[in-house]
Amino acid sequence: MSDMTTDKTDANVDQKRKEAYFTASQGQLIWTRFKRNKSAMVGAVVLLALILSGLFAPFLTPYDPTIAGRDKSYENGAPQIPKFWDENGFSIVPFVYTYERTRSIKTNFRWVTTVNREKRRYLTFLPHGDPYTLFGMQFDRHLFGVDKGKVHLFGTDFNGKDIFSRTFHAINTSMAVGTIGVLIAFVMALIIGGVSGYYGGWIDSVLQMITDAIRTVPAIPLFMALAAFIPDTWSSEQRFFFISTILGLIGWPTLARRVRTHLLSERNQEYVLAARLCGASASHIIRRHLLPSFTSYIIVDLVISFPYMVLSETALSFIGLGLKDPVNSLGVMLQNVTKADVLLNYQWYFIPVIFFITLVLAFVFVGDGLRDAADPYSDNQK
Fold it and tell me: In angstroms, rounded to a whole number, what is the distance separating the alpha carbons of residues 3 and 204?
């Protein structure tokens, strides 16, 4: 009897699973398939952690990253790694050593940093520090600090700025540039691709000529010309929005082509003809009927577009055509790693590179996972 009961239970479970599968919405099906992709899930967790760290960077980091000379006594300083014990004993509270800098004839009067292992500086949590604005509210609490002096987990740059603080704020800036650029490209792609695919004919021909013209514009020469056009009097915020807008204005053709192709194949379907017979306008049909049938692929394309926007901003800032100090972005921070002095003596300048690579790879894994999950013929849905 027990075996028969077990078989009936298993059969009921299988039946419920089949019913849930056939009654699930498109979003539920995509999420179910996405969860099966382990690399995509890991990428999603890492991406979420990086996004949150960028959003809450003012709280997570101990100092204002835009102030030059934040620690003049520790310029180009090495990372300070918290410890719990050493030869002097164990401590429940993590601590860092005191770094002392001196000049002498033996070193041709160059600064020499020595570690004083007898002077511990203990980390403190939720201390008061530099005021900042987060979600429209003023705060001065930070996640951590030290009881004496300053702490630099990733070291400092040549201006004495804290690289740890700069890195997390740079993630937020690069993500903001990518978001604005993607939104601009998204809106333009839906409008141009939707009109082109729905109407066809000469309208489609004209819009496709414009699309092809935009796609053939070389990005680097364009930005070199724009960099010469940007006045030196522009503020950091003006440069920020200008770069974001330009990235969006040249990033829409690929998605517009996909939207157009989908609408060309769907505009003669029965549900579209029924909407026309009911007197629905063209904009209503595109907005309420055609584009929603393409929603999953649009979302996937948006996610995949993010790393390219971030890469574009980073590349432009890296070669000096994008954002500049005092703006903190990953591209601005990567400008310093090409110097020979940095390569030989200050390897901690490469720490932001690790975060940049991690951010791009996380976007790639999530985008690939969403693309496979949204494709009903994907081989990954076993």
Answer: 65
Tokens of 300: 């996937």
Question: Which pLDDT tens digit goes with each residue over 103-137?
Answer: 666 666 666 777 788 888 999 999 998 899 888 88
| Cα 199 from chain centroid (whole Å) | 36
Residue-wise pLDDT for 261-319, tens only, equals 888 888 888 888 888 888 888 888 888 888 777 777 777 778 878 888 888 877 777 77
Angle, CA 335 vertex, CA 332 and CA 336 arms, to 5°: 115
Give 64-114 as a 3 state SS string: CCCCCCCCHHHCCCCCCCCEEEECCEEEEEEEEEEEEEECCHHHCCCCEEE
E-strand ranges in the chain read 83-86, 89-102, 112-125, 128-134, 137-141, 144-146
Give the type of residue at 143: L
- Two tokens at 130? 């530099």
Question: Torsions phi, psi of 296, nearest 5?
Answer: -60, -40
- 252 within 8 A of 189, measured Cβ to Cβ: yes
| β-strand pairing of 112-125 with 144-146 | antiparallel
Residue 51 corresponds to which tokens in the numbers above?
């996004």
Tokens 């309208």 -> residue: 203
Query: How far apart, in whole angstroms, are the C-alpha atoms of residue 361 and residue 306?
Result: 11
Domain that holds residue 243: 166-374
Which residue is associated with the tokens 């590179």?
353
Q: What tokens does 314 get?
A: 């980073």
Which of the listed residues 130, 158, 186 is the one where a domain comes to its end? 158
- Calpha distance 213→234 (Å, rounded): 30
Angle between helices 163-199 and 236-249 (to 10 degrees): 40
Q: Which residue has the tokens 């004919």?
A: 201
Q: What angle do CA 271, 206, 193 make, to 5 degrees?
A: 40
Say yes or no: 219 and 361 in one domain: yes
Cis peptide before 326 (omega within 30 of 0): yes
- 133, 158, 183 - which closes a domain: 158
